[in-house]
């Protein structure tokens, strides 16, 4: 009798991890020959597109986990660094910074990538930008994801929070440079450490121009205009967040004719315990593309 050893038996096929959705970093010029460079990252591929923009002084990196989840679900996701943020150019002219201007940049991204329509979303500043895109180019918007919108109830808290930063950037620029230098020395590699260091790495003149342009311009479409936005929207509001009051999100959901409201458990739920909100966002995007 011939014996068969374990070496003669076929080895089991190695278990393969599912491939990570393709990620591509790109940039484009916005504003003609003398325009500014805007940076973006694409996750995944396909005809059904989601565009995400970030909070003030943050970067597109903050939406990387959500973008990867949506890409793994079969969507093409693009995260954009608005002017003055992240890897995009940071001019020092305050007139370049406003919510309508950021909306124009988002539409320009769609044009650059040849995207006819997309679900457009964002957090805080990005939430208001999404609303402005819906006003400026409703035919380009498949749906809205609005997390932490900033309306009238947030103005005082916003000025108290960002006013000292504007003062420091204008009159104590050495402090901004020092914080940025320290942030650049922190090793990269952790998602949220990288997000924080991106935020701290500011340039005084550009930071002052950004804060001045945003807080002394139009913060959000007025209520009469919001009532005409008939695009399906997912509005996410947070308790215990004075800069993004729950009342602003609740008011916005009531103002929009076709809005679904979701209450987050905390301002950081989508960042550190994202499963529930990510599922709601993914379901909303699926519904917009009738999957």
TrEMBL record:
Region (Disordered): 1-20
InterPro entries found in the cross-reference section: AB_hydrolase_1 (IPR000073), AB_hydrolase_fold (IPR029058), AB_hydrolase_sf (IPR050266)
Keywords: Hydrolase
Domain AB hydrolase-1, first and last residues per copy: 49-262
GO molecular function: hydrolase activity
Matches recorded under PANTHER family: HYDROLASE, PUTATIVE (AFU_ORTHOLOGUE AFUA_2G14860)-RELATED, MONOACYLGLYCEROL LIPASE
Protein name (record): Alpha/beta hydrolase
Lineage: Bacteria, Bacillati, Actinomycetota, Actinomycetes, Pseudonocardiales
């Amino acid at each position: 009798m011939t014996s068969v050893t374990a070496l003669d038996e076929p080895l089991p096929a190695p278990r393969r991890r599912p491939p990570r959705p393709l990620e591509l970093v790109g940039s484009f010029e916005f504003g003609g020959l003398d325009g500014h460079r805007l940076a973006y990252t694409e996750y995944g591929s396909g005809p059904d597109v989601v565009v995400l923009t970030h909070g003030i002084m943050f970067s597109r990196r903050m939406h990387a986990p959500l973008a990867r989840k949506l890409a793994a679900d079969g969507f093409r996701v693009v995260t954009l660094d608005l002017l003055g943020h992240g890897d995009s150019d940071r001019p020092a002219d305050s007139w370049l910074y406003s919510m309508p201007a950021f909306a124009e940049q988002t539409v320009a991204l769609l044009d650059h990538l040849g995207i006819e329509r997309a679900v457009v979303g964002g957090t805080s500043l990005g939430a208001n930008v999404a609303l402005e895109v819906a006003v400026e180019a409703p035919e380009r918007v498949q749906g809205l994801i609005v997390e932490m919108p900033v309306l009238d109830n947030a103005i005082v808290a916003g000025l108290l929070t960002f006013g000292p930063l504007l003062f420091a950037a204008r009159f104590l620029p050495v402090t901004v440079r020092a914080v940025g230098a320290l942030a650049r020395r922190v090793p990269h590699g952790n998602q949220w450490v990288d997000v924080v260091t991106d935020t701290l790495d500011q340039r005084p003149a550009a930071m002052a121009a950004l804060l001045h342009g945003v807080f002394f311009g139009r913060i959000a479409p007025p209520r009469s205009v919001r009532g005409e936005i008939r695009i399906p929207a997912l509005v996410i509001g947070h308790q215990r967040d004075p800069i993004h009051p729950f009342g602003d999100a609740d008011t916005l959901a009531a103002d929009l004719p076709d809005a679904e409201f979701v209450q987050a458990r905390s301002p950081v739920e989508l960042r550190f315990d994202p499963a529930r909100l990510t599922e709601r966002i993914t379901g909303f995007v699926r519904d917009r593309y009738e999957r």
